[in-house]
């Protein structure tokens, strides 16, 4: 049982093997932080395979599920605070309840080292504004798959402006039907219709390479 | 802006025949006189004329909105989808061809009657002027696959409907019986509304597709029983159970689709949901075999399929060639219709090509240029229908929609 086995099982999406490995590594007294790092590395490889077209969304969904299940075991054991790359406030915009993509993005952003605050679906602009005031994120991520989401995203950006918060955050929109046109329309800084690219753009926006 | 000269005005009958033939020729993989332009709306676009609440709760006002739209925008066909996804109910009544089609799409009043948990509605759970939301949910436990597969219709009636509709919670209770009687009477109003819309459209020279509907078995499980993510995880953890359930769904789904055959249905609409998620391996194992069986059986029965390949379908494009030539119409969403046309020319009528984001954000000239370039590539040889794939937002400027219609007039002629 080694971290290498764990990484390999994760990349191959062998859920049972991953969880068994994690449990026995924990029992052996392995530093939970190292286990977390191993899973992050594995998630990165899963993302690369997705970008190369070897893995599909169902693999991302499954990898996200495995990652979350590992976190359930490992996170409570990590004592010292991990300094995140940055904080992302994430929600699906008003009128839209699609959240599968949002959740995948969340899992991969967390795996990359971001702290993600998820404020759920059908989120009105006011709620985004409130949450920005409370959590002071570096990035606001808006997810939306419906065409009515375009308008909701635009209204959310405007609400951030009105609250004087627009300059304090970067805004990225995501979801299968956003593109350069919609980025312009909504006034966001970046867009992504793919979680892996989205994570890269978040890093870039914070000047962390990508 | 250049204004296109209208050739001498046609009577509604002439326009209807011309448009219908134009579309039929394209479906038959031939070159019509002009590339057909079809627009559709699930609600948002029509909110140009009507509030979300009225659209789903007031049949008369909804009729007016549809007619206003087609008078303002003279396309070859307009497909309004004015109800929520109710295939769960159609399947429950698969044995009853007089009932299944009537409950296929839900109107707002039907939601009031059933108090279903699948959907939320404007003026009810949602603000007055929004579109309805299909939420779905997990109504079947992982341990129930076997029981479901034994007899899907019985299971849906006995277990899923009571769990998913508050007013059907207790089968046989006065409340549940009353709900079903009310549903029946509302369903005939809703059906009459659909017929009325067809007549209204014909009166202004616009054909309608004689439609019935079917479903991909794996999507049925994802949308109504286990949630999409649930079923994606199930195929990893319990592959055999999922496969059996898909197989058990084939026959009931075909029954639902055939229910409208005696009434003249010629096309079965099938929107695909999980196609984009699946790798070719999983697609060919869990998704395509049962869907293919449904499409082929319907084709043999004289019903072509009108399949909406949602999301990216690139990885599975070639599997469409497994179907008999002329099996139906393939509407693509994110898959580039140029690419689809290359693969499917002479085999499948390809439909789509208008990005809603372009209509929303680009100038009329940009739109014209885009569509002109697109048509140049895809119209050759016929078998192509220009259409939107996802909803056109209500805020799309009128001049952009007009530019779209004009450019087809200018560049779509054969
Ligand atoms: C699954 C699904 C559903 C499920 C949603 C379940 C859930 N919990 O999310 C259910 C059945 C509930 C549903 C409901 C509806 N749906 Co739906 N649905 C889909 C479907 C099939 C897949 C969506 C999906 O999950 N894709 C997979 C995910 C992983 O992709 P994604 O969201 O794009 O996410 C990726 C990236 O965009 C990115 N990402 C996502 N979010 C973010 C955020 C940030 C910040 C970043 C950086 C990146 C990022 O990362 C992800 C991974 O790469 C699509 C069709 C399709 N294939 O896309 C239709 C679709 C989105 N639905 C549609 C519609 C119309 C509806 C309904 C109105 C249906 C109806 N008529 O009843 C309702 C609306 C409910 C509502 N108000 O929101 C339309 C939208 C059309 C439009 N543009 O308006 C689509 C496009 C289908 C279609 N082609 O017509 N739907």
Quick overview:
The complex is a heterodimer of chains A (210) and B (414). Chain A has 210 residues and is of the alpha/beta class. Chain A has helices at 3-11, 15-27, 32-51, 57-74, 100-111, 125-135, 148-162, 180-186, 195-205; strands at residues 87-92, 115-118, 139-143, 170-174, 190-192.
Give the helix/strand layout:
The complex is a heterodimer of chains A (210) and B (414).
Chain A: H1 3-11, H2 15-27, H3 32-51, H4 57-74, E1 87-92, H5 100-111, E2 115-118, H6 125-135, E3 139-143, H7 148-162, E4 170-174, H8 180-186, E5 190-192, H9 195-205
Helix pairs in contact in A: 1-2, 1-3, 2-4, 3-4, 4-5, 5-9, 6-7
Chain B: H1 12-27, E1 37-41, H2 52-57, H3 59-72, E2 77-80, E3 84-85, H4 87-92, E4 105-106, H5 108-114, E5 119-120, E6 133-134, H6 145-150, H7 152-164, H8 174-203, E7 211-213, H9 217-226, H10 228-237, H11 239-258, E8 267-272, H12 280-300, E9 304-309, E10 328-332, H13 337-344, E11 349-354, H14 356-361, H15 364-378, E12 384-388, H16 398-411
Parallel strand pairs in B: 1-2, 1-12, 7-8, 8-9, 9-10, 10-11, 11-12
Antiparallel strand pairs in B: 3-4, 5-6
Helix pairs in contact in B: 3-8, 5-8, 9-10, 10-11, 11-12, 15-16
Bound molecules: cobalamin (B12).
Descriptive overview:
The complex is a heterodimer of chains A (210) and B (414). Chain A has 210 residues and is α/β, with parallel strands linked by helices. Chain A folds into two domains: 3-78, Methionine synthase domain (Methyltransferase, Methionine Synthase (B12-binding Domains), Chain A, domain 1); 87-205, Cobalamin-binding domain (Rossmann fold, 3-Layer(aba) Sandwich). Chain A contains nine helices and five strands. A five-stranded parallel β-sheet of chain A has the order 2-1-3-4-5, sandwiched between helices. In chain A, helix 6 crosses helix 7. Chain A starts with a helix and ends in a 5-residue tail after the last helix. Chain B has helices at 12-27, 52-57, 59-72, 87-92, 108-114, 145-150, 152-164, 174-203, 217-226, 228-237, 239-258, 280-300, 337-344, 356-361, 364-378, 398-411; strands spanning 37-41, 77-80, 84-85, 105-106, 119-120, 133-134, 211-213, 267-272, 304-309, 328-332, 349-354, 384-388. In chain B, the strands form three sheets. An eight-stranded parallel β-sheet of chain B has the order 2-1-12-11-10-9-8-7. Chain B has a two-stranded antiparallel ribbon with strand order 3-4. In chain B, strands 5-6 form a two-stranded antiparallel sheet. In chain B, 51% of the residues are buried. The longest helix of chain B has 30 residues, at 174-203. Chain B has one domain (12-83, 189-411): TIM Barrel. Chain B starts with 11 loop residues before the first helix and ends with a helix. Chain B contains 16 helices and twelve strands. Chain B has 414 residues and is of the alpha/beta class. Chain A binds chain B through residues 13, 15, 53, 55-59, 61-62, 65, 95, 97, 100, 103, 122, 146-148, 150-151, 176-179, 181-182, 184-185, and chain B through 44, 130-131, 133, 135, 228-229, 232-233, 235-237, 274, 276-279, 282, 311, 315, 334, 355-358, 360-362, 390-393, 395. Cobalamin sits between chains A (57, 60, 95-102, 104-105, 141-143, 145-147, 172, 174-177, 192-195, 198) and B (42, 84-85, 133-136, 223, 228, 273, 276, 310-311, 333, 390-391).
């Amino acid at each position: 049982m080694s971290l290498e086995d764990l990484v390999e099982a994760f990349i191959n999406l062998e859920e049972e093997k991953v969880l068994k490995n994690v449990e026995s590594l924990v029992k052996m007294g392995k530093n939970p932080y190292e286990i977390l790092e191993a899973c992050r590395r594995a998630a990165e490889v899963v993302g690369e395979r997705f970008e190369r077209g070897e893995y599909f969304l169902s693999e991302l969904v499954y990898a996200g599920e495995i990652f979350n299940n590992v976190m359930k075991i490992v996170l409570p054991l990590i004592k010292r605070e991990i300094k995140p790359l940055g904080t992302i406030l994430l929600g699906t915009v008003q009128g839209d309840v699609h959240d599968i993509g949002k959740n995948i993005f969340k899992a991969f952003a967390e795996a990359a080292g971001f702290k993600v605050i998820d404020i759920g679906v059908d989120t009105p602009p006011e709620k985004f504004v409130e949450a920005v005031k409370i959590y002071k994120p570096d990035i606001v991520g808006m997810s939306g798959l419906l065409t009515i989401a375009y308008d909701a995203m635009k209204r959310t950006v405007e609400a951030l402006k009105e609250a004087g918060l627009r300059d304090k955050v970067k805004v990225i929109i995501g979801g299968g039907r956003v593109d350069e046109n919609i980025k312009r329309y909504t006034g966001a800084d970046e867009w992504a219709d793919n979680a892996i690219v989205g994570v890269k753009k978040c890093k870039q926006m914070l000047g962390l390479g990508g | 802006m250049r204004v296109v000269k209208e050739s001498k005005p046609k009577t509604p009958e002439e326009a209807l025949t011309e448009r219908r033939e134009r579309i039929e020729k394209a479906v038959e993989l031939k070159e019509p006189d002009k590339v057909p332009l079809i627009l559709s709306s699930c609600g948002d676009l029509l909110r140009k004329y009507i509030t979300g609440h009225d659209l789903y709760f007031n049949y008369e006002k909804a009729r007016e909105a549809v007619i206003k739209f087609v008078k303002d925008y003279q396309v070859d066909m307009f497909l309004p989808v004015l109800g929520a996804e109710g295939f769960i109910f159609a399947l429950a009544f698969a044995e009853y061809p007089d009932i299944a089609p009537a409950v296929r799409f839900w109107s707002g009043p039907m939601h009031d009657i059933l108090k279903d948990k699948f959907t939320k509605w404007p003026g009810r759970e949602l603000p007055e002027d929004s579109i309805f939301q299909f939420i779905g949910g997990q109504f079947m436990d992982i341990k129930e696959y076997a029981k479901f597969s034994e007899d899907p219709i019985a299971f849906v009636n006995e277990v899923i409907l009571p769990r998913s509709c508050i007013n059907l919670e207790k089968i046989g209770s006065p409340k549940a019986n009353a709900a079903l009687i009310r549903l029946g009477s509302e369903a005939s109003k809703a059906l009459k509304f659909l017929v009325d819309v067809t007549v209204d459209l014909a009166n202004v020279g616009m054909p309608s597709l004689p439609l019935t509907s079917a479903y991909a078995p794996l999507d049925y499980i994802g949308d109504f029983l286990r949630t999409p993510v649930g079923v994606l995880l199930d195929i990893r953890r319990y592959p055999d159970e999922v496969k059996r359930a898909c197989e058990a769904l084939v026959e009931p789904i075909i029954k639902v689709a055939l229910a409208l055959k005696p009434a003249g249905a010629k096309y079965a609409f099938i929107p695909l949901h999980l196609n984009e998620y699946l790798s070719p391996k999983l697609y060919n194992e869990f998704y395509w075999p049962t869907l293919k069986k449904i499409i082929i059986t319907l084709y043999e029965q004289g019903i072509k399929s009108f399949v909406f390949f949602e999301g990216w379908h690139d990885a599975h494009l070639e599997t469409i060639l497994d179907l008999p030539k002329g099996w139906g119409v393939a509407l693509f969403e994110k898959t580039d219709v140029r690419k689809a046309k290359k693969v499917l020319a002479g085999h499948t009528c390809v439909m789509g090509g208008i990005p809603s984001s372009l209509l929303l954000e680009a100038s009329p000239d940009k739109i014209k240029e885009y569509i002109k370039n697109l048509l140049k590539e895809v119209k050759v040889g016929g078998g192509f229908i220009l259409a939107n794939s996802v909803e056109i937002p209500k805020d799309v400027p009128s001049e952009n929609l007009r530019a779209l219609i004009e450019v087809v007039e200018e560049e779509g002629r054969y």
